[in-house]
Each structure stands twice: as structure tokens, then as C-alpha cells.
Amino acid sequence: MPVVVMAQYIRPELLPYLCPLSFYFAMAAGTIAHNHNHVPTFESKRMNAIMAIWVSVFYGYPVFAWVPTHNLNHHKYVNKPGDATITWRHTNSNNIIIAFTYFFISSYYQAGPINEYKQKAKARNPKLYSTITRQMNSWLGINALLLAFAVGFNYWRHGNAGALQGLYLFVMVTLLPSLFGTWSMMWFNYMQHVHADPWSKYNHSRNITGYIFNFLVFNNGLHTVHHANAGTHWSDARAEHAKIEHLIDPRLNERSFLWWVFRAYVLSIFIPPFRTKQVGRAPFDTPDAGVVDAAEVKTDSVEALDAGANAQMV
Length: 314
Description:
Layout: H1 2-10, H2 15-38, H3 45-59, H4 66-77, H5 96-124, H6 126-193, E1 207-208, H7 211-216, H8 223-228, H9 237-244, E2 253-254, H10 257-270, E3 285-286, E4 290-291
Parallel strand pairs: 1-2
Antiparallel strand pairs: 3-4
């Protein structure tokens, strides 16, 4: 990842060839951050702290934010009422506009658990709060250094025109890929849960089972087993999925990621039968209270726990 970034800053003519890699690596950094927060990569706490900062820079946001919104909240409710990341916030429909804008709506509602997590860490867990501030300061500081290098190096080579080129390079090589990294992670969450049945033991998530896709995203396409046991290492997900694949509704096991996207968001515009449909019980149709209004749903509270803490499904 650093090589791809620096190569484009130093040799701007490589931008058309390497820029797509910057976007992929930002998305890949998101999946690495996800896996790292569930199952820390190293035994050494120091190495895990360094890993978290390194991934934060390329992902686009300090990775501690995964813990309150994902580990402690989403894994507990899995798109039920109480989940900050519900896919049915304003509608249970699924189309390209709703899928694209989900990031902006979900970001707003995830800010609550993140802020609560930081406040509780500051009040009750100084060590965790130090980790949070270290990640925030490192993320901001390294991005500032990257911007300074891109502008300064190209100014040194080409004067004022080079400074503007350096700013353009920072936007294309670092800023936009970072935004894509965070957007893609939230969209993956959306497509894996929209129209699935959160009340079911096996049908709460959509899986992409293709080998190439899962190679590129470190098995994050195999989502049902991930929710069944978030502490399972990502490299074991394929074997675990094989054990329960026959118990999952076939409509939630998709072989091809690209075909599903094309079918759900392009063909469905012209051919309505290609639209996704609710599988099983809708997330807002609660067994105890009946249908609930999304506008009245409150995000559940979270505690200040470290990475590696994974809530159990309720």
C-alpha cells in the first residue's frame, strides 16, 4: 500500500495505472481493519497497536470506530431494532439510490455509538482512551504529512504548477480512496443484510461465495458464519461456511458478486422480477411487539471495551 501511494506522488505519470489499485487497497484495508478488530492479528499488543494505525491511514478512518458500531452493536442486533446500521432506516426497499446513499445515513447514526464509546473510555478506561487518541492523532498527522509531501515534493520539482499537481495527487491517491474505503465497508454491510431475515439462525445475512471475490476481500463474503462466531479467524470462514451452507436459504448464497450487483441494481430497473425480495421475516416485524416504526427505533448503548470484544447475537 505505501509503495503504491508514494510511487504516484513521486511519478505522477503512473496515476492512471496505479490509481485503481489505491481504491482497491483502501477497500482491502477496510476488510483488514474489520478482521483485525475481531481477531487481533498479532499476539503482541504493541504490534497490534501499530497495525491499527497503519490500517487506519489507508482505510480512511481510525479503526477503533469499528468496535462500538460493529463488534458491540451490529453483531448484537444484526439489523434488528437497536442496530445503528439498520438497512431499513427510511425504507425496506433496495435499489441503486438507496444503496449508494446508505453510507451517508448510516454514518450519521453510527456517530452516536462512536461518541458514546469515546466518552465512556475517557471516563472509565484511560488506557483505551489513550489508544483512541493515539489512533486519531496518528491518522490526522500522517495524512497531513502525506499532503505536505505531495505538495512540497512536486513544488520543488515544478514550482507553483507542481504544488497544484501535488494537491490533485493527494485527492486522487489518498483522499478519494479513503472515502471509498469507508463507503465500501458500509455498503458491504448493507448488501449483506438488506432483505435478509435477522430473526433466523441461518438466514440473517447474504453470502457471496465466489472464490475470487473472497480472495480479494479476505473471505468477508462469507457472512453468515462470521455472525455465528465473530471470533473465528477469517482464513477458516470457507470451511465453516461449508458446514452450514445447506441450512441457508439458497437466495442468500450468491456465487457471483458482480452478477448480483448487476441484477439487483441495473437489470431490476427494467425487469422488476430481478429486484431483491424480503427473505423470511422483515427486521422491523418483531416477534414480541409486532411491526415497529424505524423512526422510533433507538440505537442501543455500548460499553468501552477493547478490540477483540465481540457481542453475541440476541
